[in-house]
Design goal:
alpha+beta; Immunoglobulin-like; TIM Barrel; 4 domains; 21% helix
């Protein structure tokens, strides 16, 4: 992404109704490969310590010293579902093939899993390795994660067995193997498609080593720690992209030496990640817009500096694991060129030079996986065709193509009325992934979506309404999976806390994780509004099962009664007036109750039952740099704002649309009871020309307001 700064561990308020708990059981934690492994963040309930050891088998008829430690951590929980991470540390002799068994004490069920296969019989669960993580060396750890369902209680299991031997608290006596362990099936050597598939899912360590400034803390994130990488791995991510900006750490021409301390720091972080079992990608990151972009007018110097960096990196990492992957450059772009043809030529020169330097350096670099981007990492057909030509010319089976995807732009930033994950937004995604698939994957060339998210997240994660956001990520994960694309979540510190090791939005990450393996049911909205000024009537929403089956509504641990509390006709879910009357209670403004629509797979769909009345705005005065409209939201939420002059023409920035960009031109403050209009908005407003604003709320209410700018002074009146 661009050089936008975000600060770690500073999330906004949780989504409405977003009350989640996390609990942890840590079983026999000792003998791990690093002291920081499985260092948990703060959880809301007590940590129960249970010591145990487990018999461990080895292949063949020989018996082996046995023992292990298991961690079971509930990472997030909602009203009838939860996510958990499990780690197995082998304290005995090395093993090849494992089965971990336990019994759920409260009738929980595993609904989806990553990094393992799971079978269940009633409350009894067996998790087995997948091919790539079958082997566990002495004092090494493997981990897997799952989403599950629960009802009544979500009590942690307290006893585990590995390969049939019950945990006892230490390294136990030898034991014969009860079964033949499953074979190890790593991706075939040189099979780039298999390796990239094995990298799914991926995560970006953004705004750290790529920060533009003195060091990795320049953009507000703390220093990277082993504990952070351990905890990211425990979340189920199998690959990590570590963006690196080099510009502030280079000496002068002609050799452009990289500052030794900085290169050593990058290598330290890379080695930590490799030790955790990650595939690791490093690159040249924000240099792309700092100096590489001047290549059209300074080709010789740019190419010399670029080649010098990759020469040094190739030498520094030539002996590193084959799970280290190089990416030539992030989001390549050029200024001052003659157009697309020259841009394509310049990028081809960079990618080709990168390929030549790395391959010529020998060692593991001779066959290392190399990632080449399109111009701007765009999925436009012309950009894909240009990169295909480079791949054809290089004729190297160990190459990977990469693009980035941040959604249909009006939806991604909430501008031009793009408030919903609608058919247009969905088509942009499917068309993009179809083009990428046809250009590369269908021809046996793997693709990594090296960054994904929503551009509005650069402002804050509330720019896009929660339910619409969840629908986007549900579909994104599903469609990427069908097109065999490996995806890497962009996280600049706003999603996973760099020191808390907690997700700022557990509901969002639950939806993302679910999409890795299955679809989830959604609905036309997650908001059910009841006007306080009117009698309560039945309300209907449209269910989107997405291939699942609707199974019912639940409030907390209580199932609503079909036929009494709600009815279903096709995909039309109707909440009865009687149920809504009970759920709204005293009808205080805001969220009165939270329901969850449960489906046969995936995560439940939250429905907030809300009491509201038409918002009231009041007159105000201020300046172009400080103007806020006093607002009584009365339980409602702002979706977007229109701005027009008296003649009907559009006012403010992006004058091709009347709908202004959320948080860039206007900002609701629900706790402060105001809507701020920004200096960016007024900078594009004509002097002494009244502007009519129309505020669109999620209830469907529209409220108009007039503002007039006179120099630096602003007057606002109710329309």
């Amino acid at each position: 992404m661009g050089a936008t700064c975000a600060f770690a561990d500073a999330p906004l308020a949780p989504p409405i109704g977003g009350i989640f708990s996390a609990r942890s059981v840590m079983i026999g934690i000792r003998g791990t490969t690093r002291q920081t492994r499985w260092r948990a963040g703060a959880f809301t309930s007590a940590v129960t310590m249970l010591l145990a050891a487990v018999g461990v088998l080895v292949s063949g008829t020989a018996q082996a010293a046995a023992g292990c430690a298991v961690t079971y951590q509930v990472s997030n929980q909602w009203q009838d579902g939860f996510g958990a991470n499990v780690g197995i540390t082998n304290l005995g002799d090395a093993i090849n093939g494992w089965r971990l068994t336990w019994t759920f004490p409260s009738g929980q069920r595993v609904t989806q899993v990553w990094n393992a296969t799971v079978t269940s019989s009633g409350n009894d669960v067996t998790a087995a390795n997948v091919g790539y993580n079958a082997a566990i060396a002495t004092n090494a750890t493997v981990s897997f994660g799952f989403n599950g369902s629960w009802s009544g209680a979500n009590t942690n299991p307290t006893s585990f067995a590995l390969n049939g031997v019950t945990c006892t608290g230490g390294v136990g006596p030898t034991t014969a193997p009860p079964t033949t362990p499953p074979p190890t099936t790593p991706p075939p050597a040189g099979n780039a498609m298999a390796a990239v598939a094995d990298m799914q899912p991926g995560w970006n360590l953004g705004n750290s080593l790529d920060a533009v400034g003195a060091d990795e803390t320049a953009w507000g994130n703390p220093r990277i720690t082993e504990a952070l990488l351990d905890n990211v791995r425990a979340q189920g991510f199998k690959s990590i992209r570590i963006p690196v900006t080099w510009s502030a750490h280079l000496g002068g021409a002609p050799s452009y030496p990289i500052e030794a301390a900085y290169l050593n720091r990058v290598k330290e972080v890379v080695d930590w990640a490799l030790a955790d079992g990650f595939y690791v990608m490093i690159n040249i990151h924000h240099d792309s817009w700092q100096w590489i972009n001047t290549m059209p007018t300074d080709r010789t110097n740019v190419l010399a500096k670029y080649n010098a960096i990759w020469t040094q990196l190739s030498n520094a990492f030539r002996g590193s694991s084959s799970k280290l992957v190089f990416e030539s450059v992030n989001e390549p772009q050029f200024t001052g060129s003659s157009g697309d043809a020259q841009n394509a030529t310049l990028l081809n020169e960079l990618n080709t030079s990168f390929h030549r330097i790395v391959r010529a350096s020998g060692g593991n670099n001779a066959t290392r996986l190399l990632v080449l981007p399109t111009l701007h990492t765009s999925s436009d057909q012309a950009r894909l065709d240009e990169l295909v030509a480079t791949f054809n010319a290089l004729n190297d089976p160990n190459l990977i193509a990469t693009v980035h995807y941040y959604g249909y732009w009006p939806f991604s930033v909430n501008v031009a009325g793009g408030t919903h994950f609608d058919a247009t937004t969905q088509k942009d995604l499917t068309d993009s992934f179809d083009r990428v698939y046809n250009a590369f994957v269908a021809k046996g060339i793997p693709v990594i979506v090296g960054e994904y998210g929503l551009l509005g997240f650069d402002r804050h994660t509330g720019t896009i309404e929660q339910g619409e956001k969840l629908k986007f990520f549900e579909y994104f994960g599903y469609y990427a999976r069908t097109k065999k694309l490996t995806t890497m979540l962009w996280d600049n510190g706003q999603h996973f806390g760099r020191t808390s090791f907690q997700w700022s939005d557990p509901e969002l990450i639950a939806q993302i994780k679910s999409s890795w393996s299955t679809r989830s049911g959604t609905a036309s909205s997650d908001l059910v509004f009841n006007a306080k000024a009117s009698a309560i009537t039945a309300k209907t929403i449209t269910l989107n099962p997405n291939g699942t089956t609707f199974q019912g509504l639940r409030q907390g641990n209580t199932d609503l009664v079909r036929g009494t509390d709600y009815t279903v006709s096709g995909n039309q879910l109707t909440l009865t007036a009687a149920a809504l009357t009970r759920l709204t209670g005293s009808r205080a403004y805001g969220v009165n109750a939270t329901l969850h629509a449960r489906f046969s797979a995936g995560v439940p769909w939250r429905l907030n039952i809300i009491t509201y009345d038409r918002p009231i705005l009041s007159n105000a005065t201020g300046t172009t740099s400080s103007f806020a409209i006093p607002t009584q939201f009365r339980g409602d939420q702002l979706a977007t704002m229109e701005a027009k002059y008296a003649d009907g023409s559009n006012a403010g920035p992006h004058d091709w649309t009347s709908f202004k960009e959320f948080d860039v031109t206007f900002k609701p403050n629900y706790t402060g009871n105001s809507i701020a209009l920004t200096s960016d908005f007024f900078a594009a407003v004509n002097d002494n020309a009244p502007v009519t604003l129309t505020f669109h709320f999620w209830s469907g209410e529209k409220v108009t307001y007039k503002v007039t700018r006179s120099g630096s002074n602003v007057t606002g009146t109710t329309a």
